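[agent] plan:
  1. take the single chain provided in the ticket
  2. run structure prediction with default settings
  3. attach structure tokens to the ticket
  4. add a short note for the reviewer (M.T.)
[agent] executing step 1
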Amino acid sequence: MVELRKRREVPSDVPEPPLKKKSSAIKAKLEPESNAKTGLSTNGVSRKEATKVGDNVDLDGFGDEVETQNGEKTTLKKLVDESKKGVVLFTYPKASTPGCTTQACLFRDNYTPLTATGYSIFGLSTDSPKSNTTFKTKQNLPYTLLCDPKATLISAIGLKKTPKGTTRGVFAVDKTGKVEAAEPGVSYHRINRPNKNNDNNNTNIHTSLQGPAATLEVVRKLVQNGAVLSSENVAKVPSVERDTQDVEAHNIERRGAAVLSKRDTDGVRAEVAAEVADTAQKLDEGAGDFSNKE
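[agent] step 2 finished; step 3 output follows
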């Protein structure tokens, strides 16, 4: 006969084993912390809505202090107060790089018509005063460049990249603090482009502008819509549509010249071949006459 053993009873006063805590790395992934200085969470999502066109911003303390390329401290409020109608800021990622040079030169070449209605134009980046001084001098820029190494103003106008960097774009505000433009360097418009047959029929094509040209287009539209310009300045206001059409016309002209050049070359070859054939025929005829005389 088999005797069954009884199980040992577990005392009721024994505490349960403690639960393991989640590692800090896992906790950080599950619960992203907010960055109070930038206004962004660790996953790059903004905790507040970006400033948009039509908003009225309090210019006192907006974006903190920045420096000019000469090292002079200033603020957006001070710049607006000193302007006649308002301030336009165009942002660029890094001074003296190809795209930023193109952008700065576009605003340089069109500075007079763009400021004709009273807007003051400034370039804005995280570059140092030394870098921006070199940039301004080398490119002969007629406007002031603002240095924002901590990106406080760039962040305030919604053009700061995460975790760091600057988005190319435009921000404009009038004397009352009303935002008149706030967008990155992309805009859309309609242009006319000659069709493939190069006849008089044009086809409307929607196209998008990106980068330097788009930031200029934003300010151009702002100037045209914001006030009545003199006829002289209206003609000078830059039009990306006109520029694009000029480029297309230039390309067509080049293609036409290439075709004419090819035709000219073929014509010369044909003339030479005809002359050779004519000469050969005359030689043959002369040889025949000489043999008959013999």
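[agent] step 4 note for reviewer: The first helix runs from residue 24 to 30.
[agent] ticket updated
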